[in-house]
Amino acid sequence: MTDDAIALMHLAHQLHRSLDRRLQGDFVHPKPPEAQIVALWQVRQSPGMTVRELADELQMQPNNASALVTAMVKNGLLTREPDQRDRRVVRLHVTEQARERTDEVQALFSGYLEAALGELGDDERAAVHAAIPALTRIARHVRDGRPPRDE
């Protein structure tokens, strides 16, 4: 394992944990499990997706995604709506309550990161900005198990 791979692994974990801990202290509502937050962001990004599509995006077994969706519907975070063309297909949508709460989480996360970026010098901020496309490709590679490709 290369030093860069180890450093990136530790950095990703540290950043994730730090964001999560800060959120626990600042989010005024009970914090939903991480799987629910990620599912809400995914459904919000792709309204009308199916449970199968959500499972694929979250890299979950379909039955686990179905259980997650059922809990989220019960908690008023998602709705299930029949497809207009094929009534056998059910489409997922984020509720207004979930939209407001994901906006709050996003604002908190963005605020934490913007404050940290503000402490960097111009060259460091430029380096972070320049690294984002490569880091995105690395994340896709790790998720998909395929080599990163130019996009």
Write the layout of secondary structure elements.
Blueprint: H1 3-26, H2 34-45, H3 51-58, H4 62-74, E1 78-82, E2 90-94, H5 96-118, H6 122-144
Antiparallel strand pairs: 1-2
Helix pairs in contact: 1-5, 3-4
Written account of the structure:
- With 151 residues, this protein is mostly helical.
- Helices cover 68% and strands 7% of the residues.
- It has a two-stranded antiparallel sheet with strand order 1-2.
- The two termini are 26 Å apart.
- The mean pLDDT is 91.
- 11% of the residues are buried.
- Helix 1 crosses helix 5 and helix 3 (51-58) packs across helix 4 (62-74).
- The chain has helices spanning 3-26, 34-45, 51-58, 62-74, 96-118, 122-144, and strands spanning 78-82, 90-94.
- It has 6 helices and 2 strands, in the order ααααββαα.
Keywords:
151 residues, mainly alpha, two-stranded antiparallel sheet, 6 helices, 2 strands
Task: Summarize the structure in short.
The chain is 68% helix and 7% strand. With 151 residues, the chain is mainly alpha-helical. A two-stranded antiparallel ribbon has the order 1-2.
